[in-house]
Amino acid sequence: MKNYKRSNCRLCKSKNLKKALILTPTPAADSYLSKKDLSKKLKSIPLTIMLCKSCGHSQLSHVINAKQIYLNYIYETASTLGLDNHFRVCANEVYNSYKPKKNGLVVDVGSNDGILLYFLKKKGMKVLGVDPMPGISKKAKKNGVKTLEVFFNKEQAKKIRKQYGFAEIVTSNNLVADTDDLDDFIVGVKELMTDKSIFFFETFYFYSQIKNFVWDFTYHEHYSYFTVGPLAKYFKKFGLEIIDIVKNSTKGGSMRVVLQKVGGIRKVYPSVKKCIDNEKKAKLNSLEGIKKYSKRIELSKKDFIKFADKKFKNKIVAGYGASATSTTLIYHYKLNNYLDYLVDDFKAKINLYSPGYKLPVFGSKKLTREIPDFTIILAWRYASKIIKNNLSYLKKGGVFVLPLTKIKIINKNNYRRYIG
């Protein structure tokens, strides 16, 4: 995977960057290999969060090539448990809160299979997706969503505006943090907006990520680790203002950031100031706050390795979840020393091999066929649903292990307390 070391802040362009959090280098986190590609050697890339001392923004030191990611992408919204329902709720909340003009245009950048636009279309909106992932437009079309298979930038925005007109709503979910040239992206968004338009995007929230200890969500696809304070200053440079922050539980802790042009028709909600105040209190825009987080991660790593060395010796151990976050967790916790294979429910990942360590990925039914001694739930945020779906594995004597936020052992005698 092509990559380069970024020497300045993505938001304010300062070169005053300092190392704040160092995780174990990994290959590109979602670069699962097919059997025919097993001979390929994937280089590990530094996984280090840098803090900008000038504006307080956090970002990865190394940037991987976006075209290599998205032109070889296999992620679909449907592969993340509960995300389709989340976007249904999101569509309802945005439509009811901001009351866009009936039959007005919604442009979703990074629209994937079009599920958010599907729900907005049901509200009577015109919809247009933008996503360069090969073949994704066919899947979006099944949801009734026209999708342009292109990379979004200011030039594409001009073409969209010329052909489709201005947008009532521009949105981009789980992509803004994955955009290196953010300036060009935001100029493109503004090209589509009037004084009555809103732009909203959802992204994991670094404040929530730290609070919820979701450190495994740090991987190369996510270039930026946003907090509201630095973002508010950044957007003002482009004549945009944040008017609301709505937190949610997706991706281990995310936020919906809503913007309008400066001086637009809508008021600024108290949520914006509240988030900025909380960030200052937690010292998240300083080395002190993030290094406290780093120390907690290292203590957790030490505890898990001690546990694993004692429990997993001469045992068959599976890992549940073949995702990008699994790569970060496997590398930093040295799980390659214990895991025999991975299982997953996403068909596109089955029969592939994990990045770097080349652990084979099987369907989750393998657990009940072979009953490994332990199964580490790498996708630990979805542990409740995973356990519910695999009770037969527990009843046959299998054992689940939760690695985060604290080590927990789940067996046939105690599983009820974990499934709600």
What's the short story on this structure?
The chain is built from 14 helices and 19 strands. By secondary structure, the chain is of the alpha/beta class. Strand 6, helix 3 and strand 7 (126-130) form a beta-alpha-beta unit.
Q: How would you describe this structure in keywords?
A:
14 helices, seven-stranded mixed sheet, 420 residues, 32% helix, six-stranded mixed sheet, alpha/beta
What does this structure look like?
The chain has 420 residues and is α/β, with parallel strands linked by helices. It is 32% helix and 22% strand. It is built from 14 helices and 19 strands. The protein has helices spanning 66-70, 83-98, 115-121, 136-142, 154-164, 182-191, 206-211, 228-236, 271-282, 287-311, 324-332, 366-370, 383-389, 391-395, and strands spanning 3-5, 17-26, 45-52, 58-60, 62-64, 105-109, 126-130, 147-148, 169-173, 198-204, 224-225, 240-248, 254-261, 317-320, 341-344, 361-363, 374-377, 400-402, 408-410. It has a seven-stranded mixed beta sheet, sandwiched between helices. The protein has a six-stranded mixed beta sheet with strand order 16-15-14-17-18-19, covered by helices on one side. The protein has a four-stranded antiparallel beta sheet with strand order 2-3-4-11. Strand 18 and strand 19 form a beta hairpin. Helix 5 (154-164) packs parallel to helix 6 (182-191). The mean pLDDT is 94.
